[in-house]
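Anyone up for a design puzzle?
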């Protein structure tokens, strides 16, 4: 194994000197894993994720990861990842689009088993006719699986969020999986300046004995996947066990808020938050929203921006407070269903001020002019 110095996560994320590298989002994932002290990575190819796990495989060849292999399909990968995590291993994988849906059953199982898995999702279209182009519709399917969901705007976010995700997921009072979502191609295959911490530093190792559920080693019984009769029977005790455990998973997600704030600053970022018109977005739609906001402000319009970094847990109170003082809220999205607009409408007091769009999908880009058109309509 490559020799690296274990450093405090705060030092790695906030205090270490950083070097600027002009790299793709996939390469940013590689650099995050290089410093994440990952013990095992398991891969299966799916566009646009394939390159990222290929690069992680190179890290294995270089000696940064103890074990790496390719599964026979996406569901097999996610099942293998679960087994590794149950055994107390810090593990990483990635998928996207149809790969996400093929492995879908595993994600709720991860949450229910309290597994601190970090998975990168490179989002893409899943609808027929077939497309491999960017689209975030799969995120709407993932909202209620119990996993934490971070949405990266750019390669810098991807790098920082993956490193932070391990620290958030492995907290004793959290200990549920974290998905770092990034818009395929727009970020994964685009080069950008990314501030990278020194390669000789790595995160502290995972301590599986800090888990709220016993690790499955030679000293402990396999509690996480219990098959005792009381769970399988149709009776009140079975119902109560399942209901209380699902409530505990939800509570764990709520407890993650303080750690997201510790490692990522906050669940949201704002620019001109007291403006009459707010653009609220996540992922690369934030970049389009920012460009539209700056153009509108240069034209004398009162426009601000809210960047949502954490989709689960959702920043309900923060959004409710910001929207309360706005006259209009524009929610641009890269999907056809408008799942983020629905999330925002579910927490605000006056849904009539929410404009669910513009939306593009199937790989289309979003010219900032589309958002500016909505701003002008609101200003009339």
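Challenge accepted. My sequence:
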């Amino acid at each position: 194994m490559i020799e690296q110095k274990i450093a405090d996560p705060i030092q790695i994320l906030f205090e270490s000197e950083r070097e600027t590298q002009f790299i793709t989002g996939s390469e940013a994932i590689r650099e995050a894993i290089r410093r994440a002290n990952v013990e095992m990575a398991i891969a299966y190819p799916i566009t646009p994720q394939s390159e990222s796990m290929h690069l992680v495989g190179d890290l294995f060849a270089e000696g940064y990861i103890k074990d790496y292999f390719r599964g026979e399909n996406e569901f097999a990968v996610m099942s293998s990842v679960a087994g590794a995590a149950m055994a107390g291993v810090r593990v990483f994988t990635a998928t996207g689009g149809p790969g996400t849906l093929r492995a879908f059953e595993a994600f709720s199982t991860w949450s229910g088993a309290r597994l601190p898995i970090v998975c990168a999702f490179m989002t893409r279209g899943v609808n027929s006719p077939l497309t491999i182009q960017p689209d975030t519709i799969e995120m709407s399917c993932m909202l209620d699986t119990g996993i934490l969901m971070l949405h990266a705007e750019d390669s810098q976010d991807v790098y920082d969020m993956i490193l932070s995700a391990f620290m958030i997921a492995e907290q004793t009072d959290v200990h549920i999986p974290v998905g770092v979502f990034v818009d395929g191609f727009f970020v994964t295959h685009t080069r950008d300046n990314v501030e990278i911490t020194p390669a000789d530093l790595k995160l502290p190792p995972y301590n599986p004995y800090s888990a709220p559920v016993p690790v499955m080693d030679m000293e402990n019984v396999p509690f996480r996947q219990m098959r005792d009769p009381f769970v399988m029977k149709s009776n009140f005790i079975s119902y109560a066990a399942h209901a209380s455990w699902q409530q505990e998973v939800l509570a764990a997600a709520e407890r993650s808020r303080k750690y997201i704030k510790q490692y990522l600053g906050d669940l949201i970022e704002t620019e001109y938050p007291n403006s009459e018109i707010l653009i609220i977005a996540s992922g690369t739609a934030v970049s389009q929203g920012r460009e539209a906001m700056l153009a509108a402000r240069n034209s004398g319009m009162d426009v601000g921006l809210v960047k949502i970094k954490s989709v689960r847990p959702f920043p309900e109170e923060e959004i409710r407070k910001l929207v309360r003082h706005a006259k209009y809220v524009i929610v641009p999205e890269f999907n056809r269903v408008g799942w983020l607009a629905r999330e925002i409408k579910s927490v605000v007091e006056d849904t009539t001020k929410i404009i669910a769009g513009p939306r593009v999908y199937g790989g289309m880009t979003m010219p900032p002019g589309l958002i500016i058109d909505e701003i002008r309509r609101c200003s009339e």
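A detail worth pointing out: The mean pLDDT is 93.
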